[in-house]
Structures are given as structure tokens and as C-alpha cells.
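Rotation project, supervised by the postdoc (A.L.). Task for the rotation student: set up a whole-complex structure prediction and record inputs and outputs verbatim in this book. Inputs entered:
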Amino acid sequence: MIDFTWYNPTRIIFGRQTHLRVGEETAVYSKKALLHYGGKSIKASGTYEEIVKSLTDSGISFVELGGVRPNPRLSLVRQGIDLCRREGVDFILAAGGGSVIDSAKAIAAGVPYKGDVWDFYTTDRKPETVLPIGVVLTIPAAGSESSDGSVITREEGPDKRSFISSLLYPRFAILNPELCYTLPKDQIGAGGADILAHVMERYFSPNEETDLSDRLCEAAMRSLIHNLPRVLENPKDYDAWAEVMWTGNVAHNGLLGKGRMEDWASHGIEHELSAVYDIAHGAGLAIVFPAWMKYVGKSHPGKMVRFAFQVFGISPEDKTEEEVIRLGICCLENFFKSLGLSVTLKDAGIGREAFDVMAQKAVMNGELGSFRPLDETDVKAIYELAE
Ligand code: NZQ
Ligand code: ZN
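Outputs recorded:
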């Protein structure tokens, strides 16, 4: 196990009707907030009205900015920064999923900053201060509700870039599984693939002797694989949603990667797909991850075999190592398919025209990953394997 520091200050408020407490939680930090959200979903579900009532009852005035799209755009972030400065806002409340939260984080970092907020995504510059952020989560997926990262797409390019800072951890995140009841099946599938990928990016590490972290990851993957079909079958199954929502948080709150290097190559390769084709992040990961496993599996066969056995129950008895690894990847692909996801670029309607440029951009800051570090040629080969 390698040395580590673990810090995650986000207060999680979990359970039924917890979103009704958003006013009192926000009042700890602010009297004037920005309510930031996406498209129609929070209005259609009634969540928007409930949040507005809670804020109003707690004496908080607010301005609002909706319209965040999946793969959130820099242009809306800029509008949000101008609005907050004009209105004297001192707190950003994100009501939605990873896209809304990441956009909220970008605004929170941009308001006090004298330069261009995009600097944080493209240079080593880090914010010295950010506005405090709160979250009402409506989809378990990205884990941004208690992560230190933000991922934004700049339309010109297009470029999808991320940055991390410990100042980006939200002060609180409200996780009410009941808010997930209205999620469409394709978003459940994409969110589920993202959660699984967050665990796998930590599980497939070059470091050995990380027994507790390995077992925690295996438990998280097995629980997710057990509970996702339950919510697809019955979208109002509170207990199954509670497991999925909590797994989504644990998958990306930092705990599961402790004591070892993480990888994140599949995320880097996927972000280029989302940037060019505007595909949902989790849907892209369902295509990239199996291809990445096929490409790198041979470098650490022991871990691949362990994955197949511990996560999908493939017994290594009477089989070669290669067979077990292949069957493990096959089970993963079948699981993604059962969530309604494509596992090839072709099925997602994506051709090979941007392979070169995506591979080049994916490694512009150096090699990707640690399980097996990848250069531009490797990344292109993975896109080809995903065809
Ligand atoms: O816009 P609305 O109408 O709200 O619809 C949203 C959106 O279309 C819908 N939705 C959300 N909650 C709903 C709902 N529909 C019905 N009922 C509900 N309760 O779901 C759609 C997708 O929302 P989005 O926020 O885009 O999903 P997700 O949480 O998967 O976020 C994806 C973004 O997060 C980034 C991804 O790259 C992507 O841009 N990530 C952020 C990370 C971080 N900051 O730590 C890490 C991740 O690896 C990821 O990269
Ligand atoms: Zn992700």
C-alpha cells in the first residue's frame, strides 16, 4: 500500500424527503444564492417548486440560471459568472446531475477570479478562493456531488477539459433516492456505467497489496450490478435506488482509490468522444472500458482474472488465463447491454473519422493511465478495438 492523504469534507444528507431541508442547509452560508439547474426535469417532477419553497421559507433570496446541458458548456458558465457578479450572489446551489454540479463549480471558481475561468481547465493555475457550493442530486452517476473536480466543454474546438481543486468540494450534498424515480432508462444506464467505471478506474491499479481497497471495490461493483436491474424493473423501488445512489457517491468520493495509483485512461479516452460527438459520458464509457480492458489486460493478467472471478463469478477452473479474462470482459459487455447501452462505436453511430485527432488530444498532457501507461498510438488502437 502506498502512503496517502484522504480528505472529503462534503456533508452528505441522505434519505427520504431530505431535499426539503435545502433552505436551512443553504442558510448556513448565504442570504443570496444562485439556483442552477438543467432542462425540464426538475420542473416536471415538482422538485423545483419544493426547492424554491424551502429556500423562501428559510429567508434566502435567489436568482436562477437553468439550461445546463449534458456535457455542460463554457458559454453558460460565463453567463452564470456575469449574473452572480451583477446580483451579488455568494453561494451556488446546484440542483441536478454531474453536468449542473460541474457548471456550478465552474461558476463558483470564476466569480472571484480576475482572469478567464477557462484558465483553470487549461493551465496549472488554481483558484485561490471559490464561492461555496451546495447540491441537490437528482441522478446517481458522476459523483461530482462530493468530488473535487469539474468537467466543462468549450464549444469552440470542441474541447472537454477538467480541473481539480480541494476548494471545489461542495459544502453539502443532499441525496434523496426518491428524486431518482423520474429518471428515463437511458440515463439510468449511462449513470450506472459511469459509477461502475469510477470503481474500475481505481480497481485496475498497478500497485499490489491493496487488499482492503480491492475488496471494497468488488463489493461496490457487485452491489451495483445487483441493484441496477432492480431499479430498471421497478423505478420506484426506494431500497434499490438508495443502494445505487449511495454506491454512486462512494464510487467517486475518493475512498476506493486509497493506498494505490488510480488509472483514469478510459475517462480520458471517453472525454474526447463526448467532446466531439456529444455522447452521454456513461454511454461513452460503456464503449471505451471493454476495449481498454482488451488492450491492457495482458499487462496485469492476475488482476483481470480476479475481476472476472470476484465480480462476475467466472471460475478459473479448467480454463486458461486468456479465457477467464475474455469471459470477464464479455460479462461486462453483456451487463452494459442489459442496461440498454451500446458497447461498440458503430452501434452508437460513431465512425473512425476523428480517431487521429481524439487520440492526439487525449494525450496532450502526457501519457494516460498507470495500469499500463498509454501513448497516442495506444489510444488510437483502443478506439479501433471499440469499433
Ligand atoms: O437537464 P434535465 O432536464 O435536468 O435532464 C437531465 C439530463 O438530461 C436528466 N436528469 C437528471 N436528473 C433527472 C433527470 N431526468 C429525469 N429525472 C431526474 N431525476 O439526466 C440527464 C443527464 O444529466 P447529467 O447531469 O448530464 O448526468 P451525469 O450526472 O451523468 O453528469 C455527466 C457529466 O458529469 C461529468 C461528465 O463528464 C459529464 O459532463 N463528470 C464529472 C465528474 C466530476 N465532476 O467529478 C466525474 C465524472 O467522471 C464525469 O466526467
Ligand atoms: Zn465518470
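Student's summary: The mean pLDDT is 97.
Supervisor addendum: Residues 308 and 314 are 5 Å apart (CA to CA).
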